[in-house]
Here is the input.
Amino acid sequence: MKPGMNPAVAPVAAPHATTANSVGRVMATVMTALLPATLCGFWLFGWPAIYLWIVTVGAAMLGEILCLRLGGRAARPALSDGSAILTGWLLALSLPPWAPWWIGVFGGLFATVMGKQVFGGLGQNLFNPAMAARVALLISFPVQMTAWVAPLPINAAAAPGIIEGLRITLGALSPALDNISSASLLGHVKTELSRGIDLLHLLTAGHAAADSLSGARAGSLGETAAWLIAAGGVLMLFLRIITWQIPIAMLAAVALPAALLHLVDPGRYLDAGSHLLSGGVMLGAFFIATDYVTSPNTPRGQLVFGAGCGLLTYVIRTWSGYPEGVAFAVLLMNSLTPIIDSSFRPRVYGRDRKGVALEPIK
Amino acid sequence: MRLFPIRGGIHPDYRKELASEQAIVSLPMPATLYIPLQQHIGAPAEAQVAAGDLVKKGQLIARSQGAVSAPQHAPTSGRISAVTLVPAPHPSGLAQLTIILEADGRDEWGELPEAIADPFAAPAQAIKDRVAASGIVGMGGAAFPSAVKLNLGIQLKLDILLINGAECEPYLTCDDRVMREHAAEVIDGARIMAHALGAPRVVVAIEDNKRQALAAMNKAAAEYPNVAVIAVPVQYPMGSERHLTQAITGLETPAKKLTADLGVVVHNVATARAVHAAVRFGRPLLSRVLTVSGGAVRNPKNIEVPIGTKVAELVAFCGGFKSEPSRLVNGGPMMGQPLPSLDVPVVKGTSGILALTPAEVNDAQAGPCIRCGTCVTICPCGLSPVEMAAFIRKDKLDVAARLGVQDCVSCGSCSWICPSHIPLVHYFNYAKGMLMEQNREERKIERTKTLAEAHAIRLEQAALAKKAAMDAKLAAAKDKANAVAEEQAGA
Here is the structure.
């Protein structure tokens, strides 16, 4: 073969060198950043959590393979970029850790089939697939999706072992939920407020900061160790996988109204720290809202998008029937991404923001 | 001197160390030279010789034609064997009219124009005429006739002649070596050009990764208070003239204008050196320094090469290939053109010949866009490559044009950084070509329409005139008939 005449490669045109970066490498880095919080979740919630994670990731991959086969496309290259695994992974982290296997299967399949492949595969979906699946699950199976358990470290005497854990995930063994069931902070607050008990009389409020350090509290599989999530996020910032605009804007947009209203009426409104460190805000800010495909790609657009995600999360948490709102907030903002993108384009060199050529200075 | 930031940009693997420590060597005169009549932007030159003619070194062999053109001179003495079609150093590999010169080995100089003893006392026009007659074109790669650019001082008031020594393309080290080894010639050429332009200041901008070049140029410029040598940050595409101008002045060149509209004219270091030779010694542009490099080249070098040398001879001079190259490039890896073969000549704009290994090219199948937005972040022109490419794929060129595709400088940063390896800049070059073609068509249609309308009006006027004439004639005939009738009646 003559040099420069290789027909197997894309058009031979400049540039004749490229970055060593690739989609697979980006996905792998994100997964690495997720690892600490995930392992912490496994530790805290034991074998059922591990099984649920495997089932969810497996189902997400299966959905991807099925669709690619149906479309007559090769499954291997698409699968090897790791995007389906990451989608399943993120979904698993947002599930109640002892949820039955079919929650993971339904969610995983929904994420890649309805959330992604229906739109045309990687890069084409309007909504974050993991959050679309989480919302579908929450609406379809509210009981299973809000069955929280108190953390029971994997080596604790009372923790389910390998076999027992498998039976819990398979639904064959109904754990004595009464003994170990618990409420997440946000759920607890919502329930108590609706019973007319104000926050000043609740002991749980205000402890979020301490609990989130160890993650030892009730919550989704991978969301309880908020500081580990944030550490993963900082790693991604450092490696320039994500930029600061979305996470900072989202965290600020949760914290500011929370702090303000808490100041006004501490009996009705939870403090900013509890909001930031509870539920899915950290995971949402660093790993969900920053999803490339479904977020805007200009810095100013990302600020608007992040702020929207944060504000909507706060509004849903505070005034809606749901204790948690990250998934809804992200999906709502996803739908605005195209319009944000076209409204916040960068200024073209030599032109003003409207696209009119600059006046020569002289 | 204060520097100003430019937007975006990338930091590719520069790999300049392959050739940067190789001092410039002269290529032994090849037996045969192939001198294309078109080596520059503008009209091709017109051959002044025919097969069998004997020529001396430096003799004019092709005359420039029209306002934007450049002549060619014989790089050595010898016999013209043919003026015929030879494959051009262009990706198409199409042939173009070329003068073939068989060297006689004596390398005998012909009669040269007289040196301009004191160029700073000479009128600007004399300098420009000399530059034009010497066949000097922009040697950074664009090959725009330099004399035309020197005329910018006539209509515009210029402040700065900016000498571009950024050499931001990876691999290329020829400008670096020219600045290290011939600093005084570059500075002298630059001062002469500034005089011709009427620009009071000369600024030489060099990327900060060329410390020895900076030192040499600073030394050469030390005695001239109006010449400043400045280190600019290593940031591709710093060498883009619009961006370099912005880094130095903080001013953005308005869309569809020239840097000259800001009072800045940019010339390459090698061009300045060529001007020095032309003005001080009467020597036309006969050779240039270029870099032969890349992982597949056995001994990368910086070589002073006679114009018209076949690329294959350069490769042989560098010890040939040590591995099968996956791609041959004419120019740098970011903006250079793929070379169709080694059997093409070096021209005035050839700044480098690269033979890249598969690992260096890193060919990968383009994957789906994941909308990471990196291309938007790094675009030095503030464009949205991801969006423009999506519209161009759907053949919506009008939308791409509205998004500013014609403001793209084709630096290739977006293609380089894309994790999905989408050939973004290739889409933009395609769109720019199509839009230009459309524009030309539209103008042609417009012109045809105006001409047709004018024709219709002319016909109508002619018809009216004819009718008026007929009427007048009829009326006259009638009058006459009446008169006759009256006469008869009276009689």
